[in-house]
Amino acid sequence: MKATAKAHTNIALIKYWGKRNDELILPTNNSLSLTLDGFYTTTTVDFQEDLKEDYFELDGEPVMGEAYKRVTAFLDLIRRMADKEDLFARVKSYNQVPTAAGFASSASGFAALTAAATKAIGLDLSDTELSRLTRQGSGSSSRSIYGGFAEWEMGEKEDGSDSYAVPIASENHWDVRMAGVVLTSKMKKISSRAGMRRTVETSPFYEGWLKSIPEDLSQIKKAISDKDFTRLGEIAEANCLKMHATSLAAKPPFTYWIDSTIRVMQQVQEMREQGIPAYFTIDAGPNVKVLYLPEYEEQVERILREVPGVTDVILSKPGPGVSYL
Ligand code: 2P0
Predict the structure, then answer these.
(1) What interhelical angle do 65-82 and 105-120 show, nearest 10?
(2) Coiled-coil annotation: which residues (predicted)?
(3) How far apart are alpha carbons 255 and 262 in whole angstroms?
(4) What is the mean pLDDT of each run of 10 residues along the chain (325 residues)?
(5) Which stretches of 184-228 are DSSP H helices?
(6) Which of 138, 153, 241, 246 for a ligand 1 pocket mutation test, highest count of atoms within 8 Å of Cβ?
(7) 298 CA distance to ligand 1 centroid (A)?
(8) What domains lie within the chain, and their CATH numbers?
(9) Which of 67, 87, 285, 296 holds its CA 20 to 30 A away from the CA of 178?
């Protein structure tokens, strides 16, 4: 009863930023992402009859505390589905995701865990079923089941049965690149979970954010299908700025940006003035991700590395969906 799976992380171009149901992880809006090639998690799950509890190891180190609880609570869902509630597992994960880079390792982590654990326990799930299930571990992981561009449909039902990701275009559709601009390895003060909750509950801008999503989504899907990089970048950058504006209006207000975040944003806008098409997006942390086309890779990397406060620049192509090893 052992299986190994690999899942890549994804970066949202239309952000998920709020839940309507915290327990089932049901979002307030659809989101859309690009799965990345360079960053992934490989997880082996081994259910063993003689174990009295789960054991979880990340990059060779045993994990305890909150992270352990999140994994075992998630395995409980899978045990219940398989009707094997007294069966525990050894879980070994390896992150090929620089945690410091702000590349969400929870997306690749839960997607790989879901695929490996369901296979190991004898469930044979479709991609839709995997996406719906892994969503309950971490919302953004629902999109990591697919390669390339994927959309997480929020669904309407309160049991979450229609809330899962769907593929929009595979990793072979269009070679757009993403640079992860690393600024700091300090842990953030407000987790994305806490940040989105405070924003939903208190930000007067939240309603405006939600209203703007359907138009952003339909425009970005058209840009992907037409391979219109300018449109793609403009929509993604504006959507990111709107998301971060909601947190600035929360009570108490907060931002994930630091001084160098703004310097990189300005540098990206300056690149465009110099004729280099590049756009940024930022998640629940200070680091910046920059979208660019392959022919500008050298210039984009060189310019980003020169910005004061930048400690690393990590380049990636579109990546594949979840796979079994
Ligand atoms: C996203 N983020 O769409 C957005 C943009 C952060 C900013 O998904 O509570 O770790 O586990 O569902 O998936 C980060 O949130 O949150 C996230 P939970 P998750 O990528």
Answers:
(1) 40
(2) none
(3) 12
(4) 97 98 98 96 97 96 96 98 97 82 80 98 98 98 98 98 98 97 80 96 98 98 98 98 98 96 98 98 95 98 98 95 97
(5) 192-202, 206-226
(6) 138
(7) 30
(8) 2-173 (3.30.230.10), 177-316 (3.30.70.890)
(9) 67
Å from CA of 130 to ligand 1 middle: 18
Token representation of residue 80:
């219940």
The Cα 76–Cα 70 span in angstroms is: 10
The token duo for 173 is 């559709």
Residue 85 has which token pair?
């509630």
- At 117-151, the pLDDT tens digits run 999 999 999 999 999 999 999 999 999 999 999 99
To which residue do tokens 């210039």 refer? 299
Rg (CA), the chain: 19
Distance CA 282, CA 91 (A): 31
Residues 207/316, Cβ–Cβ less than 8 Å:
no
**DSSP summary character for residue 258:** -
What token pair was written down for 150? 């994927």
Q: Does residue 151's CB lie within 6 angstroms of at least one atom of ligand 1? A: no
- Residue 38 CA to its chain's centroid (Å): 14
Tokens of 223: 């840009």
